[in-house]
Design brief:
Helix content is 31%, strand content 26%.
């Protein structure tokens, strides 16, 4: 066992312890003047983290198309991306050819030799329908890079080297309406593949659409939101267990892994979920105070049994049967029925992270 990991058991749970592109600056600032759109400067001060969200609603299997299922097959690294200048959804075949040509060019320069681009390349851009929640949101775009070795037979399947997608789900409509019409806002970028190939894809986007990328982490508050929203789903879809990981300041540093049975987590959640409110009065919203009370209960239970104050640490990871999320910006969505709920929160994170 790792000496830096604390392990224990409780009666009902187990514990195992950039630069902004010039054209965007000019277009955006000419449109909104000197105001900031995301609340980090004294501009649009009402733009803040959401304190109330709709409880997750299950999507029927019939509503999930094959393109959406492709988003569930792996863990993704998150980034934010500024609006794309003159990006057009009707030109996806052209973009496929252009990105493939760019990768071939980089390979000939020797830049791409170490990221697996020694074979015949094929790039595909496809639309993922049914993700947008409002008219202001642009359709999700999925990108895949395939390869086939020169010695492969014609009927041999192509190997997927890299995949990624850009999306905007449940984005703030007030902000989206301020984006100039020459720009398309797809602020959440999810990538799966080597860092070198991801860097090349980002470089092509930056050169072609005058945009900027940045690292997108999931802070403790948003990890708590995900834990609460996923636990709320247990009555309809089993979450199996709620697993939380804290980084606790100690010498040496200690990691606490708190694994709670799904039913116990669900009962605690129901106990703080609008107590005293009749079912017919429930408007389907979840408040930040409820999330805070839920975690206060989790921490209190842990302290009673192990005398470790988790409030002194930082929540770094959340996982259930519906998905997992890590502070470093890695996300896996394991159940398509509640994908929209998760992506709405991540879209908000991306919009808040973007610089002016």
């Amino acid at each position: 066992m790792d000496p830096h990991t604390s392990v224990a058991r409780s009666p009902f749970s187990s514990v195992v312890q950039k630069r902004r592109s010039k054209s965007y600056r000019q277009s955006y600032r000419s449109y909104v003047g000197t105001m900031s759109h995301l609340g980090y400067t004294p501009g649009f001060t009402k733009r803040r983290l959401t304190t109330c969200r709709l409880a997750p609603k299950r999507c029927s299997t019939a509503e999930i198309n094959p393109e959406q299922r492709a988003l569930l097959v792996r863990e993704w690294q998150l980034s934010y991306v500024t609006p794309l200048y003159r990006f057009q959804h009707g030109h996806l075949k052209t973009y496929s050819r252009q990105l493939a040509a760019f990768l071939v060019s980089e390979r000939q320069k020797g830049v791409a030799a170490e990221v697996g681009l020694e074979s015949t390349l094929k790039v595909t851009f496809t639309l993922v329908a049914g993700m947008a929640q409002t008219e202001e949101e642009a359709d999700t775009v999925f990108i895949k890079i395939h390869s086939k070795t020169p010695l492969a037979r014609p009927d041999d399947p192509q190997k997927v080297l890299w995949s990624g997608w850009l999306t905007c789900v449940g984005g703030d409509p007030d902000y989206l309406r301020t984006v100039p019409e020459d720009f398309v806002c797809l602020p959440l970028f999810c990538s799966g593949g080597t860092e070198g190939l991801t860097a090349l894809v980002k470089a092509w986007f930056q050169r072609t659409f005058d945009c900027c990328f940045g690292r997108l982490e999931i802070n403790s508050v948003n990890l708590q939101w995900l834990a609460a929203l996923w636990t709320d789903c247990h009555a309809r879809t089993s979450i199996k267990q709620l697993k939380l990981v804290w980084s606790v300041p100690a010498e040496p540093p200690m990691e606490v892994i708190y694994a709670m049975h799904a039913q116990d987590a669900s009962e605690l959640w129901r106990s703080v979920r609008k107590p005293g409110l009749r079912e017919e009065e429930d408007d389907g919203s979840v408040g930040l105070e409820e999330v805070a009370c839920f975690f206060k209960g989790l921490k209190s239970h842990f302290y009673r049994h192990f005398r470790v104050e988790l409030s002194a640490g930082r929540l770094t990871q959340v996982s259930t049967a519906l998905g997992s999320a890590k502070h470093g910006g890695r996300i896996k969505i394991s159940n398509s029925s509640y994908m929209i709920t998760t992506l709405t929160l991540l879209t908000e994170c991306a919009l808040l992270k973007m610089p002016i």
